[in-house]
Amino acid sequence: MSREKATRKHKEQPVTFDTEYTGRSLTSLAVHAMLHHRSGMVGLIITVTLIIIAILAPILAPYDALEMHPEDRFHPPSTTYWFGTDEFGRDILSRILMGSRISFSVGMISIAIATVVGVTVGLIAGYETGWFDTITMRFFDALLAFPAILLAIVVLAVLGPGSFSAMLAIAVVSIPAFARLTRANVLAEKEKEYVLASRAVGAKPTRILFRGILPNVVSTLLVQVTVSIATAVLLEAALSFLGLGTPPPAPSWGSMLSVGRGYLPLAPWYGIFPGLAITLLVMGLYLLGDGLRDALDPRRQKLV
Amino acid sequence: MGKYALRRILQMIPALLIVSFAVFMIIHLIPGDPAKIIAGPNATDEQLAALTRKFGLDEPLWKQYVIWLGNALTGDMGYSYINNYPVNQMIAQRVPATMELALAAALIAVAISFPLGIAAALKQGSFVDLASTVFAALSFAVPSFWLAILMILLFSLTLGWLPPSGRPDFSEQPVEHLKSLIMPALVLGLAISAKIARYLRSSMLDALSQDYTRTARAKGLRERVVIGRHVLRNALIPVVTVLGLQTGDLLSGAIIVESVFAWPGVGRLTVQAIGWRDYALLQADVLYIVLAFMIVNLLTDLTYGFIDPRIRYD
Lengths: 304, 314
Fold this sequence. Notes:
The complex is a heterodimer. By secondary structure, chain A is an all-alpha fold. Chain A has one domain: MetI-like (MetI-like fold, Orthogonal Bundle), CATH 1.10.3720. Chain A has helices at residues 2-12, 19-22, 26-35, 38-60, 92-127, 131-144, 148-159, 163-189, 193-200, 205-241, 253-261, 273-296. In chain A, helix 4 (38-60) packs across helix 5 and helix 5 runs parallel beside helix 12. Chain A is elongated and about 75 Å long. Chain B is 77% helix and 0% strand. In chain B, helix 1 (2-29) packs antiparallel against helix 12, helix 5 (87-122) runs antiparallel to helix 6 and helix 6 crosses helix 8 (174-208). Chain B is globular and about 85 Å long. The chains are: A mainly alpha, B mainly alpha.
């Protein structure tokens, strides 16, 4: 029955990819679309620049992020301290540069965990619809009943505050989205001919899932990963701002703002620059994700 | 309709059970003996033993959960670790402040997003349209606590128009009270208005390209009538869902915004409960927030059918 369905589907949707007359692969089409997506390219440039800054931070930073200059407490922005200094006379620019490493590592590692767990569960749940599917999806529905930050707070209450706990908390919050997205994609993919064909020649489910279906859902996941890292960076900053994430004296952007909030009349710059850094990074990832979404969506490609 | 509502309420039960179990486990997963947390660092062994008995901490875990759940079902959520107040009372005191903030924020969000979304759809590709796109990107990328700090810098410290934090009693200082509401509500409202505006824009564009819109125009109706009676009315249906879904964002946002502005609501209480290590309070607080979130989602789905009779639930 499913084979009939697949054939019918095939007849209804004749293949009309641009590849037929351009002779270019889908990947090269996507890259081409991305290169011509203006805001997407802006996002890519911002993100890549910030990644390079994070890698080179120890070289770029004019001072040690933890070095105190007691004589220069709350020094306003000047040629010596471009972004001013904080309550211990630490250079805010150096702290922001080093802080980018916290934001990136928490964002990337937490989403890496969420991707691996969420995608694996989603692949199995979508392919072997049955008790596993029912149980996991009900469980994720319950997780989705929590507002994201509340769930992260609950996880942090259990694990105790800290960078690593924040990472795990953000991962837990992000898993359901990946699992649901993957499952929905698998449900659509598994009726397609290439899956039926590999099943017919006796391929094992693991092979079909990881070698067959997974590569076909990667583009959707890529968009989700980008946007999720942006959300994770925001969440880490928010948790640190609430005093639950990265503890002092580590230069997390969120906790810098939290401390800076208390010194606003004295040092307004303290409350401005770390927030600017968060906004820039999240904006870069957001625009990049938006561009990828357009570039990887074959239905939109002709519009680009 | 009644059947559907009943089924949805029944479906909430397993989800609530999982949530309640997760919330219950908060207290038991925390490293260390709960009795020690309650008694404080200087407690004697006798005091610890008494507390262990009092809170039933020597019973097996499943039994503790059943007892706790039974109490929760009768509305007894236990007592605060720090001041022995009933947690229900502590939370109830904070609810009005959060409701007030959320309502004001929702009003601001509608006041901003509706004109913006409609204008962006009617003048596609215009300056307004571009502005709404930029606004959407900014509202995603600018963290609410930073926006709050910037507003405090501008409106409190530079201009001196608004108080930087707190919530004076309305009956004593009505003007000061309203002034203190402006910034928190604005920060919270701005955050969700962009999403609603984007959604309204695309749903307006969809309605504009429908046959009934062309028919209405072909009949010679004035453009205002076409937009107001035909396009907008249909475009608003999906927006209602988005408004409902924003409640989650409102509650999440309230946790942060209330903390920045020292607004004495449920969100700030959640953060305070962790700081105080008052896990009985945290349990109850989280459970109520999740319950509120679920109920709003249910109401949203049900409203859907009232607005659009074409929608059948089965």
